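Below is the record:
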Amino acid sequence: MEIDVKIGKESIAFNIDNPFMFDEAGMLRDIVGFGTKHGVNLSGFSIDRLIKRMIKGVAGCEDGCPADAKAIVRAGFGSFSLSYIEGGILSAKADLGNGTPLEVKVFPEF
């Protein structure tokens, strides 16, 4: 599984071998640092909860997308606009307030 976090035109990617057991704290630290590097405070966006929810929706898509992925899109998440992309990919987009987009994508592993 791959997680891609994009601020403006730059991104940081994480490869997750086991979506149920990985270094969430380390990944969040890297994401917050990535935001800080771009002058953005990501603390109000609940990135950790968003990514956990997205992982739950994508895990298992190798055998066809679980109904949970589309349910997550329907339920939404805070100020993020969620979308399901064919192939089991989940995308979450938000405006950082200065016109700069924040996008999180979770890709299943095939």
Q: What stands out?
A: The radius of gyration is 13 Å. The mean pLDDT is 88. Strands lie at 2-7, 10-15, 81-85, 89-95, 101-107. The helical segments are 24-37, 47-58, 67-75.
